[in-house]
């Protein structure tokens, strides 16, 4: 029998040596940090880890995690099935995450809902921190959030805001014609009205038109989207059970994602047909995306231009509507439960705006108390109490603990916002705190880590200015234009629903009567 060639003998030897080296390297790297892993919370079960603590609990997740932080400290680790999650509930540790470790923690974890709703991560908000994310974020900032575009956004918002006031006034008149005296207030569901306003605004900004059938369909789909994004999908944590689709969430996610994608596809094809007759000044955001990606030779991650355009517009429509409506609903609820605050806002509006015209964007800088009310609302009820999850792209150190690549990171903004070591009376609604020397300069734009409603670092929400202006103007408009009060002497229920964004369990119903001259509602 012939001896095998020497080269064939060396192949398995080198392969074995390589595998041994890789194992030793990995083991030594992890052993380097023995005793320095993030402390793990107690009561983990085999296989599912801490999953059982959340699956059967009817409380919002951020409240459960806040209680765990009281027990296990400002940084602790969870095992959720096959996933390791680090939870941070301290402003200084959050600062370390978003500054020293910003690049290392810039990843986004994969999930079943994100996979379907973003066309396999074509949406920049859910995409990995790579070429696609950088390119699309740059386009969003330049085309949607430029000075020229923001001026156009303000005009659209002002127009839709006036339409909202007219519609509310019309409802009040119709109630009078049905036999109710116009001296009596009409009951309205403000959550529904705010949805109408913001979906309408975003539709005009993104697509340049407002067809009631389209935005009504979109409003319902966006609500389903956020409900499903916040659902606990077992397959996300126990991937080997994904095929079972326990509780049918993936089926529902696929259907809603298909509905929304079909809506975006119809709008995209209509824009392509109508582009030839539009001037540069008539272009909306979808037009700008089509122009940009027509000229772009390459899109990151191998996506075609149409997929990126649909996913980008869908992300902005959902995020720009749901979170703003949620914040505005909480703000008005808090104000109505604190009548002294309502009076101060109204007095400020009467002083700086008066009753002979409607409030507009240019007035907001003079309404310092109103701005404080919005900040305090974002402190107590951030739309995303757990910031959008991050994922470690490579090993890093947080608070002297090692966090390995692939670990998921949750920042509990709700817990940070109510830290008694920084905020006096942290659970009390007190807008005046932002008018004191101690907190006057505190901002929500990611530079002050005690207040992080929009996140921080390179994955911060890029549309903070637009969102803030929308909430401030929405609150000012309703309080200036109408006498608003609770339907009864009972305080408005402030219970929080389960979901991705922290919404109210019950709709916000109010009694409302006009308080401005009749011609301003025409």
From TrEMBL:
<feature type="transmembrane region" description="Helical">
    <location>
        <begin position="6"/>
        <end position="24"/>
    </location>
</feature>
<feature type="binding site" description="axial binding residue">
    <location>
        <position position="461"/>
    </location>
    <ligand>
        <name>heme</name>
    </ligand>
</feature>
<dbReference type="InterPro" id="IPR017972">
    <property type="entry name" value="Cyt_P450_CS"/>
</dbReference>
<keyword id="KW-0408">Iron</keyword>
<protein>
    <recommendedName>
        <fullName>Cytochrome P450</fullName>
    </recommendedName>
</protein>
<keyword id="KW-1133">Transmembrane helix</keyword>
<dbReference type="GO" id="GO:0016020">
    <property type="term" value="C:membrane"/>
</dbReference>
<dbReference type="InterPro" id="IPR002401">
    <property type="entry name" value="Cyt_P450_E_grp-I"/>
</dbReference>
<keyword id="KW-0812">Transmembrane</keyword>
<keyword id="KW-0479">Metal-binding</keyword>
<comment type="similarity">
    <text>Belongs to the cytochrome P450 family.</text>
</comment>
<keyword id="KW-0560">Oxidoreductase</keyword>
<dbReference type="GO" id="GO:0004497">
    <property type="term" value="F:monooxygenase activity"/>
</dbReference>
<dbReference type="InterPro" id="IPR050651">
    <property type="entry name" value="Plant_Cytochrome_P450_Monoox"/>
</dbReference>
<keyword id="KW-0472">Membrane</keyword>
<dbReference type="InterPro" id="IPR036396">
    <property type="entry name" value="Cyt_P450_sf"/>
</dbReference>
<dbReference type="InterPro" id="IPR001128">
    <property type="entry name" value="Cyt_P450"/>
</dbReference>
<dbReference type="GO" id="GO:0005506">
    <property type="term" value="F:iron ion binding"/>
</dbReference>
<dbReference type="GO" id="GO:0016705">
    <property type="term" value="F:oxidoreductase activity, acting on paired donors, with incorporation or reduction of molecular oxygen"/>
</dbReference>
<keyword id="KW-0349">Heme</keyword>
<keyword id="KW-0503">Monooxygenase</keyword>
<dbReference type="Pfam" id="PF00067">
    <property type="entry name" value="p450"/>
</dbReference>
<dbReference type="GO" id="GO:0020037">
    <property type="term" value="F:heme binding"/>
</dbReference>
